[in-house]
Amino acid sequence: MSTLAIDKAGPSRKVKYGSMSRDRTWALRWSYFFLVLFAIFFLTPPVYMLITSLKSSAEISAATNPWWVFHPTLSNYVELLTSNQFLRFFWNSSVVAIAVVIITMLISIPAAFALARMKFWGSATLATGVFLTYLIPDSLLFIPLFKMLAVFQDYTGITLLNRWYVLLFIYPTLTVPFCTWIMIGYFASIPKELDEAALIDGASWLQTLTRIFIPVALPGLIAATIFAFTVSWAQFLYPLVFTTSVDQFVLPVGITTTLIKGDVFNWGQIMTGALLGAAPPLVIYAFLMDYYIAGLTAGATKG
Amino acid sequence: MADVSLRKVIKRYDDVEAVRGIDLEISDHEFIVLVGPSGCGKSTTLRMIAGLEDISDGDILIGGDVVNDVPPKDRDIAMVFQNYALYPHMTVAENMSFGLRLKHYPKAEIKERVTEAARLLDITDLIDRKPKQLSGGQRQRVAMGRAIVRNPKVFLFDEPLSNLDAKLRVQMRIEIKKVHQKVRTTTVYVTHDQVEAMTLADRVVVMNKGRIEQIGTPNELYHKPATRFVAGFIGSPAMNFLPCRLEDVGGTLQIRLTDRIAFALPPARAARYNALPRTEKLLLGIRPEHLTESHAHLEPGVETFETVLDVTEPMGMETLVYFGLDGTPICGRVNPNAGAKDGSPMRLAMDLNNMHLLNEATGVVL
Amino acid sequence: MADVVVERGRVARAAGARKGTSLRNALGRKSTVAFFLTLPLILLIILLVLYPAFYSVYLATLNKAMTKFVGFGNFTFLFKRETFWMVVQQSCIFAITAVIFKALIGFIVAHFVHNIPAKGQRKWRGMLLVPWVIPPAMSTLAWLWLFDPSYSAFNYTLSFFGVGPIPWLGDTFWARFSVILVNVWYGAPFFMIMYLAALKSVPDQLYEAAAIDGANWWQRIWYVTLPMMRNIIAITTLFSLIVTFANFDIVRILTSGGPLDTTHLFATWAFQVGIQSNDIPLGACVSLFMVPILAVAAIFILRDVSKRGNEA
Description:
Oligomer: heterotrimer
Shape of chain A: globular
Structural class of chain C: mainly alpha
Largest sheet of chain A: 2 strands, antiparallel
Strand content of chain C: under 5%
CATH topology of the largest domain in chain C: MetI-like fold
CATH superfamily of the largest domain in chain A: MetI-like
Order of helices and strands of chain A: HHHHHHHHHHHHHEEHH
Distance between the termini of chain A: 67 Å
Helix content of chain C: over 70%
Number of helices of chain A: 15
Strand order of the largest sheet of chain A: 1-2
Number of domains of chain C: 2
CATH class of the largest domain in chain C: Mainly Alpha
Strand content of chain A: under 5%
CATH architecture of the largest domain in chain A: Orthogonal Bundle
Structural class of chain A: mainly alpha
CATH class of the largest domain in chain A: Mainly Alpha
Radius of gyration of chain C: 28 Å
CATH superfamily of the largest domain in chain C: MetI-like
Number of domains of chain A: 2
């Protein structure tokens, strides 16, 4: 009797185990299958950029298999990287992005410190205001800003329109609110006892900021820096509106306007330019992925 | 090193009074523990001494100087926080020396002081580690080291052991006591744990609802509590309180607990309570260790009664017994060999020589 | 004795008065410091965000030469133009469709990534976020090339299946489809990363409890995952709605609004009218039409974000 019962229980239990692990194996296979599909969808454009950038104009116009390079050449890269104009775009973009990062940090960090730690009249309203400002898109402000700059020029004689450095004033409107917002979150997550300990140790508020808060919130600072850099690097609408001379262009505007000559599209060069333009954010992303992602998700999870 | 005085110190948050007029004299070298339930104002008091909170009224003196408006860094105090508040990006040595470095002490002296403090706390090997690499107990030592290095007039501890597990807490408790014996700095220590208070303090300040209930040595608080709050707060398991009244039976003063149970008071107690009105509603306060199993040779003043146990908790060296008298839950401590069992009847002895009599309405111990 | 008492009282009063003023000074110092720390931020917001926003309203009430006040003239002019209503319609279709697909694809991909062993997740996540990292102006150029009328790599591939050639950007339907496709491609990874972060924050015990209660995988998603992620889904979706609604780069580079203005969004049309055709007031007027929907989305985001703040 007892042996019979064991006999019955044994196989049925085995079957159950088998089916569960088989379920899991299949779920895993399906996951990988779909992930490969989505990866193809997500990576096709950048891969296609790379493929095209390695082709000569002759190969492109021959309309052979577009997904394959038959005669790989670096001529597009050589041509662009020796073109003063392209290097000028790259230089403008770099200077603007780096300067904007510095300006953004100089504004955001003190403000976030004050908003996170010094409760003062209107501080809560200001914090909310900062967040709302972050939600105002560039496409709402480019026309009045354009007119403002024109009027400013008429009154003061200082030319800002069609100068690359005008972007140093404009880009912070896109970077400062978000960076302040996430820095408020990072600063607020520092235990209050830490600044009290610093206070008892004899630190002034400036020393508390520079020697305690900034080092402790360094991951947040890196995330904010990456955000400010990538936003400045990628911005397209403002430079398109505020700069018109070729020597004042930043990369996105330069590539989209100058490499397209009339109806002649030199696709090999355009793709090379686009790839080079995408390179700095991609490199930063590759090396600092965790900070990049922390910055992305911080907007909704912090503060 | 210095004495600390609090004179009619009041702390108001908007309309709420968190601390309602505290008077406290702490003498040099003394180890004072502020104890009480959460929200009793003990931490606020400590933070006012530290200068982290402004005081709403009254005066705080350190070493004879009024420090009401002196910022924390100039009060010459050091504080150890519950969550340690170590600077996570600095090594242990950097953490300990931060205050000295801010004050631009000579490098050699900083090194000497850090080494000395590390040796005292037995953390010399950890000096180059970051707080993240340390265990809770080690972090606690570093936090104390940071305080010692500065050689302040007063040490302030804000629930420093609450984040540690029970075993480590006992160990660190002894450690703190040892350190105090060596450095002899005036210390104010806040905790909600009455065992910590009793074991560490020269004098304990029991606080409740923003006021001081009683100040005294651990023994005074245990044996001569002034109020029902102190009587109930100090000691574990807590003191039992039974409604009772006094009555005169045949010339002797009796205390009646239930219709069934009444005991004649020992002569000393009878003399003490004789003047009380017989109609007054009273509480008998008796600690569990004074409710034991009955045996043959009872001392005078020890009275026995029969009860049925609800639950028993064997603790090893003793057994806690729980039962009810007229609906009041009572706890007693009996010998593990006395045969106490759940649901079984037992004869217990109450040592009336160690009883307390309280006024039920005011909570004052009579 | 009495003298002493009086003396004491005076000292106490003096001490009280001294404390009062210095406390006020301290408060004054603190808020003064805070004010100076936030001053650059306040100036930036006022001068370069708030002022232009109101200036835009003022501009919208001027005539083309900006010499005369015309009140709601520009608005009534727009209401009469067919193109305007087409832009309104296309902006809504574009934003809503794109956000729905971004949210769906993001959710599905996040689930698959969450499903695979933790060791490989980082690699996949890193790969799948690439579209979001490339500046949209750059990646849209690649799409433009993929959609090229004569050399389209898509049409080349489809021709093997006997499909096409598809006029990706030449025909109204396909052009609208294409701009949405590119936007979904660009934005879905953002949703994925947000969902993935949210999925990781759901405690495993909840799934185990649900499994013990006999829930199948679909019930686990419906009763455990979705409710736990509701807030982050709402925030991400609303945020994406704002960004998508105000999109400029993709449409500008891919179609410039064509064919026949059928793919214009508010932003690209405002650019064409205000900057390219030099009618600044009309351009300002067009972009102002974005405000209502942006405001509604912003209010809801603010509510959800502060709710999250309270939970934490």
